[in-house]
Amino acid sequence: MKQTHIKVFATGGTIAGVAGSATRKDYRPGQIGIDDFVSEIAKIGLTARLEGQQFANIGSEDMGPELWARLHVAATEAMADDECAGIIITHGTDTAEETAFLLDQTLATTKPVVLVGAMRAADAVGSDGMRNFANAIRVAGDADAAGRGVLLVMSDRVFAARDARKAHTENVDAFKGYPRGPVGHVTPTSLEWFGPAWREGEAARYAFFKDMPKVSILYAYAGMSPDNVAQALGGEAKGLVLAGFGHGNAPRGIRDALARAVEQGVPVVRASRVDEGLVDREPEDDTANFVAARALNPARARILLQLLLANGITDPVRIQSEFSRR
Ligand code: SIN
Known about the structure:
Structural class: alpha/beta
Strand content: 15-25%
Distance between the termini: 39 Å
CATH superfamily of the largest domain: L-asparaginase, N-terminal domain
Helix content: 25-40%
Largest sheet: 8 strands, mixed
CATH topology of the largest domain: Rossmann fold
Bound molecules: succinic acid
Number of strands: 14
């Protein structure tokens, strides 16, 4: 029987991390090469043909435009390769949501693209890496995974990149989805989707650019002053995302300073520093021309605003309609 061919792009993270001891705290992410990883998986009896490629071996705190551009090129080529059924990207969990969301918005959704990570190093007691990786193989090899955008597999659950965020600093069950929870349940021997694909056959939503405009995040805190807005806009920021209180709120002086920034042509998106919930439009958004981030947290709202600006979408009304798109 012909084996499913899956390309594995390795970037590092805890899934490739080692501690050298079950009791040490200072484990090092990005230590195990993809070839070792692929040969380990062969031992557990998975039948897919895995073709590994080492893109980097870093902690994902160092992930950024250079590597994103290389991943984007490789994923685009893999999409066009008739032999390739799906793509797995091994990734640190810290910034996996940003990479997943960026690729989700800039790749066609015709083949499964799955990010996978781990919370425990490969040699830690109860390591989750191999199980997550085995689960990712099952998802990437499933034709029904196509048309669901980029996916993220952790702790037996499948999340859509549009919804997924890291929500715990230590637990293996580290990711949550909002507004949708997991879109599927996976184990090395089973895969169940909780609904139909929603982006079937869809082309890339936006063109990918390696060099995207600078967009800052302004984190709201009690007692902040309008100087904070000036600082956030320094260094030629072309857009700003507010990680606001509650429903995307900020002190009066901050909102006035942000409204002046919009008047000067810098789009402002109101997101929330709260973990969960929508930030919807409010009457002040109409007068100040702010954009409501809806379900996107500040990190993913920043990526979307960068993408929109890079694609020439600068009008707040247009920006709002893109943020409101599912
Ligand atoms: C990282 O993001 O590279 C370190 C943390 C992790 O992978 O869980």
